Give the backbone structure.
Amino acid sequence: MVDDDVLVQQLAFTFLTGMDAAHAQALIERVGSLQHVMTLSAAELASLTQCKKFTAEARSKAMERAEKEARFIADHNIHPLFYTDAAYPKRLIESTGAPLMLYALGRCNLNASKVISVVGTRHATASGVRWVDDMISELAANVDDLLVVSGLAYGIDIAAHRSSIQHGVPTAAVLAHGLSTLYPAQHRDTAAKMVRDGGALLTDYPSDAVVHRGNFLARNRIVAGMCDSLIVVESAVKGGAMVTARIAFDNNREVLAVPGRPSDTYSAGCNRLIAMSKAQLVTSTEDILSVMNWPVRREEGEQGSLPLILDPEQQRIVDYITRSSDATTIDRISSDLNIPISQLLPILVELDFNGVLLSLPGNRYRIA
């Protein structure tokens, strides 16, 4: 439980700075502590930070606003998540533009071992909604500790949330406003079920923030940053889903897109992402499991396959990739192990085929 005084200082800091978590961390390290940021004189702060915005008047107003927000949090059972808190989404903190504070209504594990974000058009077709439901149903039946994230909007978003509720999967909705209201109001019942069934409503906006058009694009960085994989189901060439896909791609998240007919307006965006190699094509839940390399839940008594025996050269390559902290390019493997690419490529292909390695875009490989 966060101490009330600490919470007020955290809130005041978020109201004062207007910066993301990465820049805030650098500032706090330079000053020494969050408490010092809020209590040192303006002259002392200016000498340490070369910034003159931390005036006594500005900090006083921020503290006043923070005290009001802290009362709202206590009165409405909101869970504040400062970027240093253990419950703050770890994937998000590693992405660009991570907010300093998140406000959550509902107890939800935002650090589940598997997190997908599902986005798409507000003008979803019956086929798109059915695809989302089938996907979540099959994922729920095959993998453990899954969280589904979306934005509570019409169309694909609300389909993802409702399907998650139906199939017993926790789901989090990232809102574009404070928790004193809910938009769209038509989705209030679904939102209540989400919270009641182990999900959450999540926002980086304080309670007095109203619905504003620009907020919807800004919240997409959270939808993209929280996930392992962003799945785009039906999107025109322009729109929020495409923005979210770009953010996810730029943050090295797996972007998966469901293709459609060239003549379909709301498949054009998905088709373009695939054509530009900014998304992998998926047509089934099996494709998602393969790309993400997620182990499938085994039924009791089910036998595993026999282990693959590697020859010395294969073992040397596998050991090298295992020691690498990230996916490794074929050029790097060739150079470091002194294996010509002409000899290396067939070995990598065979290891990929046998499920030992996973090939990724950009001629990169990682252990499967």
